Amino acid sequence: MVDAPDVVLRALREAPPDQLAEAVDRAIRSALGAVRTDVFVADYRISGLWPMLDPDLPAAGFLACHTVAQRCFSSQQPVRDGAEDGACRLYLPLTVWGERLGVLLIELPSAPGPVVAGHATEIAASLAVAMRAAERETDRYRRARRRERLSMAAEMQWDLLPGRSVAHHAFHLAGQLEPAYTVGGDHFDWSLDGDRLTVTVLNGEGSGLAASMLTAVTVNAMRNARRSDGGLVEQAELASDTVFYQHRGHRHVATLLLELNIGTGRVRAVDAGSPHVLRLRGTVVEPVTLEQQLPLGMFAETRYELQEFQLAPGDRLFVVSDGVWAAEPAGQEPYGQRAMARSLRGTRLQPATEAVGTVMRELHAYHADSDLRDDAVVVCLDWHGPRERNGG
After folding, report:
1. 238-289 residue pLDDT tens
2. Residues in Cβ contact with 312 at an 8 Å cutoff, skipping those fewer than 6 apart
3. Are residues 78 and 207 in the same domain?
């Protein structure tokens, strides 16, 4: 039992990419004496967790497991749950670099000691890394996440995303797209490189496949410049020129480009007719005022200028698209006018991963749960401050 994590890691390395859940089930049963395991995967809306090994779990059993698994997923902490026969169920978060994938369930004949519990935590970490890598080679985990069929535009958008969250000692970052199964043009992207975190948020123009294709061209142009060591200005200008020469000014993309120095909290920005930026400091929500420049692709050879602002340790930034800010269901005032600030303040005790879901749920409630009329993107960035200030 001492080498249980090694046994499971070897099983994961030898398994086909679509059989990780089965491989880890066999290895855990053998190495830890488990009587049952399952892998719960979060859906695209992060509204539920769904079993991969036992999809026909009876309703009562599913609801009981799902409730505890959801608590584990939300808290990102292991949770124990006793069974009537004396068995103990361990629920462990499946998370890699802050990206929440789901929950691993391990049912043992009795309550585990600290050594077995530690082994179980290591196993969950190894499984999460393997699942993230396997997504390039199989569709199984993507199929498990979808509760309905994606539109073609949404298929492109989800494949283009870097992930839905990332964690670092200096920051936490999360984003969410809605409507999850039919989103068209709104998008976000990010990349961490040393002490530099680059975040871009696009308020896509139009709807459907045409909007998704425009966003894909824009995102990949910015990535091309960034991966060639280009700064924010070069990223914006290459993307703008690419879109203009493709569409001759008839299509353009409002975009915000941010670059955070994670050691100092200094933020560089290019506001290309951008989505809206709001800062939550304590209980106060206030807009970050930037000078808007032309959207990407509106004119040939548009040139952009950098702006800067400073974050304080503990600051939270929200970036929202017009689908959030300007939502006006049933003749109500725009969501961004007052209701959104209340929603943002309500997230201050939640991690960024939960905060984006809260804002989206509040947006749906503002629409009286009717379908959103426009794509909506919410990105939440928490800057904790440099390590030395946090005593780390």
Report:
1. 999 999 999 998 999 999 999 999 999 999 999 999 889 999 999 999 999 9
2. 265, 281, 385
3. no
Q: Which domain holds residue 316?
A: 150-390
Write down which residue in 89, 120, 143 finishes a domain.
143
Assigned token pair, 188: 């976000």
Question: pTM, whole model, 2 decimals?
Answer: 0.91
Are 92 and 84 in contact by the 8 Å Cβ rule? The answer is: no
- What are 18's two structure tokens? 């679509």
The CATH number of residue 118's host domain is 3.30.450.40
**What pLDDT digit, counting tens, does each position of 12-50 carry?**
999 999 999 999 999 999 999 999 999 999 999 988 899
In 3D space, the residue among 141, 149, 68 whose CA is nearest the CA of residue 105 turns out to be 68
Residue whose tokens read 């974050």: 311
Q: Is 254 left (phi over 0), alpha (psi -120 to 50) or beta?
A: beta
Which stretches of the chain are DSSP H helices? Answer: 4-14, 20-32, 59-75, 114-134, 140-145, 152-160, 208-227, 232-247, 322-325, 339-345, 352-366
From 143, 173, 201, give the residue that closes a domain.
143
* pLDDT band at residue 388 under the 50/70/90 scheme: very low
Kindly state whether residues 60 and 169 are assigned to the same domain. Answer: no
Tell me which DSSP letter residue 292 carries: -
